[in-house]
């Protein structure tokens, strides 16, 4: 077995496991790991267990390494801080989170990579700006083709191809939550629709504020008593 084949077998275990839960094709994860880490031999991989060239600070800190960037079609060498990991498993998990969660300014940045075949995923991740190399997708696909990485894009022991899950309609409340949602909406704790959407911190604060006021009214009974309880509650809340 060649060193590249051994690398694939080691990475495939993690990639296939991730794919069952995330629907990110294993062929993409393996090809990216091979390309980004020079098949596990790059200085960054050896120094920081970083397989994908993700920048920033990781569980084991960061590593400053020289890297090639493409600016206006030209290559330049720059130093950059890359995430460091305790092992390859952490690196793969972090890479998966990046594709699933995107970046702070665009949570859907890599959405089109999920639930598609390996070649499509390679093209979509390049379009999304994962790497500055204009031939990034072509290089990934070449690795996929040469080593038939598509064989890992299956679930249930290799009997079924990976499929995209149906995206939930956030404007429709789930049956199990419908009674509670209707009651909370009727009583003014939640506004509008989108019952399936993530709750923002602002929305959480508003719900807590409304609940807090109603509890004070329930306990206080009259305006003077409510004002007194408000002061007592504020004193409790100000305690460290």
Compact summary:
The protein is mostly helical and 240 residues long.
Structure characterization notes:
The chain is mainly alpha-helical and 240 residues long. It has two domains: 3-161, Orthogonal Bundle (Lysozyme), CATH 1.10.530.10; 175-237, no CATH class. The protein has helices spanning 3-22, 26-37, 43-48, 88-101, 118-127, 136-146, 178-186, 201-220, 223-237; strands at residues 62-71, 74-83, 154-155, 160-161. The strands form two sheets. The protein has a two-stranded antiparallel ribbon with strand order 1-2. Helix 1 packs across helix 2. Mean pLDDT is 84; it is low at 156-166.
Alpha plus pi helix count: 9
C-alpha-based Rg, rounded: 25 Å
Mean pLDDT, rounded to whole units?
A: 84
Tally of discrete structural domains? 2
Structural class: mainly alpha
Query: What is the class of the largest domain in the CATH system?
Result: Mainly Alpha
Q: Which descriptor suits the 3D outline?
A: elongated
Measured between the Cα atoms of the first and last residue, the distance is 62 Å
Spatial sequence of strands, sheet with the most strands? 1-2
- List low-confidence stretches: 156-166
Instruction: Summarize the main sheet.
Output: 2 strands, antiparallel
In percent, how much strand structure appears in the residues?
5-15%
Would you report the number of β strands?
4
Second rung of CATH, namely the architecture of the largest domain = Orthogonal Bundle
CATH fold description of the largest domain:
Lysozyme
> What pattern of helices and strands is seen along the backbone?
HHHEEHHHEEHHH
Proportion of helical residues? 40-55%
């Amino acid at each position: 077995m060649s060193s590249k084949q051994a690398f694939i077998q080691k990475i495939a275990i993690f990639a296939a496991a991730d794919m069952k839960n995330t629907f990110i094709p294993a062929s993409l994860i393996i090809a990216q790991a091979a390309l980004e880490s020079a098949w596990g031999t790059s200085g960054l991989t050896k120094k920081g267990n970083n397989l994908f060239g993700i920048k920033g600070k990781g569980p084991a800190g960061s590593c400053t390494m020289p890297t090639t960037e493409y600016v206006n079609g030209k290559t330049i060498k720059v130093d950059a801080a890359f995430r460091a990991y305790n092992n390859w498993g952490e690196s793969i998990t972090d890479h998966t989170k990046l594709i699933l969660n995107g970046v702070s300014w665009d949570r859907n940045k890599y959405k089109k990579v999920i639930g598609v075949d390996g070649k499509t995923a390679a093209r979509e991740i390049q379009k999304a700006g994962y790497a500055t190399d204009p031939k990034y997708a072509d290089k990934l696909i070449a690795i996929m083709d040469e080593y038939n990485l598509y064989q890992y894009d299956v679930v249930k022991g290799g009997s079924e191809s990976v499929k995209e899950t149906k995206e939930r309609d956030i404007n429709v409340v789930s049956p199990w939550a419908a009674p509670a949602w209707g009651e909370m909406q009727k009583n003014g704790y939640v506004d509008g629709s989108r019952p399936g959407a993530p709750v923002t911190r602002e929305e959480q604060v508003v719900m807590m504020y409304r609940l807090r006021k109603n509890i004070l009214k329930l306990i206080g009974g009259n305006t003077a008593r409510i004002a007194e309880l408000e002061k007592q509650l504020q004193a409790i809340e100000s305690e460290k």
